[in-house]
Amino acid sequence: MLWRVFSFLVCQAIPALAVWFFNGSSKYLTAEVLVAALVGCYIWLLLDALRGLRLLKWLRAGDTSDIPLGSGLWGEVFDRIRKLVRARERTLSESEMRLQEFLAALQASPNGVLLLDRDGRIEWFNQMASTHFGLDAKRDLLQHLGNLVRDPGFAAYAAAKDFSHDVVMPGRNSSATKPIKLSVHIHPYGDGRSLLLSRDITALEQAEAMRRDFVANVSHEIRTPLTVLAGFVETLQSLVLDEEERVRYLDLMSLQAQRMQTLVNDLLTLSRLEGSPPPAATDWVSVGMLMAQCEQDAHDLSLILWSTPHELHFIGTDSLEIAGSSLELHSAMSNLIGNAIRYSPHDKVIEVRWETLPDGGAVFSVVDQGQGIAPEHIPRLTERFYRVDRSRSRETGGTGLGLAIVKHVSQRHGAELSIESTPGKGSRFAISFPSQRVRVREHELA
Ligand code: ADP
């Protein structure tokens, strides 16, 4: 401020003194000296106004990178404004950064996120919401959501304005063969705005439907033998039977009880397979031992079911070993062999084979000459309780879970189940094991 007063006085004094000096240094204050001082005063005001204009220009340009530095009052005004502007810029860029981080987090959300203004117009949405509703960021921003999402269920939900629950609606590319289900929930916030969250629940719904089917199937499978058993018990209680009849009834009851037992055992096996970690790749199981067990079981089963047993060929290399669980491998092998016996007439040949592959892997296969399976059934055979020949399956004590168990065991051993079949000619079920799970005993190699 001092500098300002000083410069003001100097600006008047210099021209006044100059005029006074040139006019002969008179003792009196002449009019010329006063005019010169006045001119000095105007010059100072002009210079001052110019500096003020520079500040105004700089402020109007809004470009804080080129700061007109100066001293004195204007200099300080420049400096303080610059500091204020810089601080504001910093706050703004920090807010912008935080906003971007926040939006990036919403983008990364596995759910669809959509922000709506007070009138239900779209303000922002993430990529997942765009996929769920088929929205385009360029085209659909500021459009009314109701105009773009036309599902009647959603329209009724939005109109009712009861947002205490979600609504389930079909996704964009949903079709009868490939249904897509979305759960959509609107959450109002602020002054009339809303946040819409969408979630793809197709897999969840499928799992729930599978669970319902599974419970219904298990109940049905258990109810049948249970009804038969209850009927026999009632007969035994109410009728006086001769010894022969009594024994026949008890045999039939025992068969039904066995059927239930097999079903429960298969269910427990499945749940163990689904709920436990995969078998270690360091426990080696002898293929020769597995084949010996299965061969004995196969002969017994064939004899029980057909009285004249099948011609069974067991071909394999005793030196082969598979890394995994002997219990699980035995279960998978005996299921496939059992099916071949149950679904082939007794005068046909069944071939059970273990063989190594050039890449170091190994294949276990069961080939029968039985009734075969039509191609449309093959992709569904490993579903739980899926049966092609329902009556044959029941007659021979099938549970409909055998191939589901085989598939699980195969997956747990890194192996793959393949099925080839020609109706009327026979089938080939094969499990291919990767080389990491296969080894040939060393002394056999030598
Ligand atoms: P199941 O206990 O009914 O045999 P699986 O899961 O083992 O159940 O088999 C599913 C269905 O696949 C069977 O019901 C049967 O119709 C068919 N199937 C399985 N193996 C054979 C086979 N070797 N030949 C013909 N059909 C078979």
* Overall residue-averaged pLDDT value: 91
Globally, the shape reads elongated
Q: Identify the bound ligands.
A: adenosine-5'-diphosphate
What percent of residues adopt helix (DSSP H or I)?
Answer: 40-55%
The parts where pLDDT drops under 50 for at least 5 residues are none
**Overall radius of gyration:** 45 Å
How is the biggest beta sheet arranged? Answer: 5 strands, antiparallel
Tell me the distance between the termini: 105 Å
CATH architecture of the largest domain: 2-Layer Sandwich
Q: What name does CATH use for the topology of the largest domain? A: Heat Shock Protein 90
SSE sequence, one letter per element = HHHEEHHHHEEEHHEHEEHEEHHEEEH
Give the CATH class of the largest domain: Alpha Beta
Q: How many helical stretches? A: 14
Total number of strands: 13
Output the CATH homologous superfamily of the largest domain. Answer: Histidine kinase-like ATPase, C-terminal domain
SSE-based structural type: alpha+beta
What is this structure's SSE topology?
Elements lengths: L1 H21 L8 H31 L10 H36 L4 E5 L5 E4 L1 H7 L3 H4 L4 H4 L3 H9 L6 E4 L10 E9 L3 E8 L1 H37 L4 H33 L8 E3 H20 L4 E5 L4 E4 L2 H17 L6 E8 L5 E6 L22 H6 L6 H11 L3 E7 L3 E8 L4 E3 L1 H4 L1
Parallel strand pairs: 7-9
Antiparallel strand pairs: 1-2, 1-5, 3-4, 4-5, 6-8, 8-13, 9-10, 10-12, 11-12
Helix pairs in contact: 1-2, 8-9, 9-13, 10-11, 11-13
Bound molecules: adenosine-5'-diphosphate.
The site of adenosine-5'-diphosphate has 22 residues, from α11 and α13.
